């Protein structure tokens, strides 16, 4: 595959002619809309003629999705996945499992039919829909409650045809670190004995003693040994309330990988990849400004609609642009095929075994086709 960055005066037809491909292929792969306008600086994925299977590494590809995902989006994405993580189940302080508000049964059916492993994602959501670290404390420090939760999870994966559990516990208290690791080891033992797998989502640490509620409760080495796999949540540097910046800047992701591979076997590591961007109104005011989450295809359409030029930060290896909406200026950071290739190159460089997408609710077809050109499932 080729990546082409649009210049002034380019059109889909001139680009297609330059590469000797059909314009309809460029339109389809890049989800262009009629009459197919382009933004200066937009990165397009151009189909190639060769697909060398011998040079591809095998990759486990996971995507998180809510049960209310659009059916067509899910069906279009499943062929590129190894695992589908259903987001999400909760639990109470006694270890009772709380199913998603919308039934995930149809997603599981689609995944199984497509040869994709459905995975039950477990999160400690409280009644307000936010992560509740007291729930974590209640379960990991009480053997009976922790055991009840494990048994209830086993019953659910059996009943619903899940093939594994993904534990996404965030904001774990520092004092609960070892108890959490011990509970994950117990969960993994029970699940493995019954033919199921366990993965754990890890906040993006760069050192053992990194301060902060996101990091202190996660023992990279201990959890890497306890679980079958880990997902490094290498995204959300730029987030809803942050200053405008890349969601997953490659220079910062690299620092997480440098640390992670000293604690966890590379064969167990999946690198997190964001499938979204953010649109910030300016000027930014800390604690006041709130960004809007947008899709990557949507970001390009915003640039086109406002005549914005898309630029590229070569340190973060991420595209961005500014535009005016009335009297308000905006700054947008998102992902394109250049930034995705930079992330795929990291996976190859560090010889990691997996990629985990948060999340697949929006279709970004060029990403999947590029991934498919570089790896095999």
Question: What's the helix and strand layout?
Answer:
Layout: E1 2-5, H1 12-19, H2 23-29, E2 43-46, E3 57-58, E4 60-65, H3 71-77, E5 83-91, E6 97-98, H4 105-113, E7 117-122, H5 133-140, H6 143-160, E8 164-167, H7 177-193, E9 197-202, H8 220-226, E10 229-232, H9 250-260, E11 269-274, E12 277-281, E13 292-294, H10 296-305, E14 311-313, E15 318-325, E16 328-333, H11 337-349, E17 354-358, H12 365-374, E18 375-376
Parallel strand pairs: 3-18, 4-5, 4-17, 5-7, 7-8, 8-9, 9-10, 10-11, 11-17
Antiparallel strand pairs: 1-2, 5-6, 12-13, 12-16, 14-15, 15-16
Helix pairs in contact: 6-7, 7-8, 11-12
Describe the structure.
It is a single chain. With 377 residues, the protein is α/β, with parallel strands linked by helices. It has 12 helices and 18 strands. The chain has helices spanning 12-19, 23-29, 71-77, 105-113, 133-140, 143-160, 177-193, 220-226, 250-260, 296-305, 337-349, 365-374, and strands at residues 2-5, 43-46, 57-58, 60-65, 83-91, 97-98, 117-122, 164-167, 197-202, 229-232, 269-274, 277-281, 292-294, 311-313, 318-325, 328-333, 354-358, 375-376. Strands 4-5-7-8-9-10-11-17 form an 8-stranded parallel barrel, surrounded by 6 helices. The protein has a 5-stranded antiparallel β-sheet with strand order 13-12-16-15-14. Strand 15 (318-325) and strand 16 form a beta hairpin. It is globular. The model has no long low-confidence stretch (mean pLDDT 97).
